[in-house]
Design brief:
single chain, Peroxisomal Thiolase, Chain A, domain 1, 2 domains, four-stranded mixed beta sheet, 13 strands
Length: 356
């Protein structure tokens, strides 16, 4: 390990505890989880005061009752990630000094650049360790998890902090033009600490990822854009092109098709079936999507984690928040087989299987 300002020494794979996989690598597992949401609660009735909508309309369309917004200006995604990371470290029985690398998934970074990962690294007091930002929207956490998992398996880093954090509220359009997107999103953060698994049959058993750029413009924020001669001007702002836009019907159709398919793909890769799943933590984009995905998988609703009714869509943060809340609710005991699935802009989608 390193001192406060010196370089961090990384153990080689053969120095690590636990059992090696058949290819000589080390399986990773989630050692601890944490989450944080702002204290400001914004209900559907609150939104109805500034745009043509209603609690009934929003709930029927999305299942959302309320969401959390940051309390004011000057609060970025890395600020929300900090308490979530500390909670994950506390559950794991580790300190920030045990973190060897950070993978930070977000589509709402504190600034255009640098990434939020280095800001979190600085706030944790960890000079010198690598910090990587991942921009894969609602699938961002699973993409980030795959990087952290690979690093631990290969022996590159022993403990990897994987974070999903978003501040959407400062980038939403609070009027009738932006209503369909604005009512869906909220702010929040979740984090997990990855490390070596104590046994081959526990930990992250599989992660599978996909993408298809054919749907890139079905859910996107067009500007600022380096693909344009002028990245941003007054005309673009007046037209609202800097706000997120969504083809809801297309996204719904793709999500309800790809999420069940990728979930079954991941289960099959580890020799499991849906009947083996104890808990399903899907990305929280829409309650109707999650219910339909569970129905297609023949998963009973009591096995499905929902938090969208309380937080809205926190994109890269939804799955780690679900992990943290499920662990603290006693739903992720040792031996629990957990299935994750996500779908988001890009299009990107993925699934993972964890045995606690």
């Amino acid at each position: 390990m390193r001192g406060a300002s010196g370089p961090r020494e990384v153990d080689l794979p053969f120095d690590r505890p636990g059992h090696a996989l058949t290819d000589g690598s080390m399986r990773s597992t989630i050692l601890g989880s944490g989450h944080y949401v702002p204290t400001r609660v914004v209900t559907n009735d609150d939104l109805a005061k500034v745009m043509n909508t209603s609690d009934e309309w929003i709930q029927q369309r999305s299942g959302i009752k309320e969401r959390r917004y940051v309390e004011g200006g000057g609060i970025g995604s890395s600020d929300l990630a900090l308490p979530a990371a500390r909670m994950a470290l506390e559950q794991a029985g580790k300190t920030p000094a045990d973190v060897d690398a950070i993978v930070f998934a977000t589509i709402s970074p504190d600034y255009n650049f640098p990434g939020s990962g280095v800001l979190l690294q600085h706030k944790l007091g960890l000079p010198g360790i690598p910090a990587l930002d991942v921009r894969n929207q609602c699938s961002g956490f699973l993409y980030a998890l795959s990087v952290g998992d690979a690093w631990v398996r290969a022996g590159v880093y022993r403990h990897v902090l994987v974070v999903g954090a978003e501040v959407h509220s400062t980038g939403l359009e609070f009027n009738d033009r932006g209503r369909d997107v604005t009512v869906l999103f909220g702010d929040g953060a979740g984090a997990v600490l990855l490390g070596p698994s104590p046994s081959d049959d526990r930990g992250i058993l599989d992660i599978v990822l996909h993408s298809d750029g054919v749907g890139a413009k079905d859910l996107w924020s067009e500007v600022p854009a380096s693909a344009l001669e002028v990245r941003l001007n007054r005309e673009m702002i007046d037209e609202g092109r800097h706000f997120a836009r969504m083809n809801g019907k297309q996204v719904f159709r793709w999500a309800t098709d790809k999420m069940p398919a990728v979930a079954l793909e991941s289960l099959a890769r580890v020799g499991m079936t849906v009947e083996d799943v104890d808990l399903f933590i899907p990305h929280q984009a829409n309650m109707r999507i999650n219910q339909l995905v569970a129905m297609k998988l023949n998963l009973p609703q009591e096995k499905v984690v929902h938090n969208i009714d309380r937080y809205g869509n926190t994109t890269a943060a939804t799955i780690p928040i679900g992990i943290s809340e499920s662990w603290r609710a006693g739903r992720m005991e040792p031996g629990t087989r957990v299935l994750f699935a996500s779908f988001g802009a890009g299009y990107t989608w993925g699934a993972a299987v964890l045995r606690v």
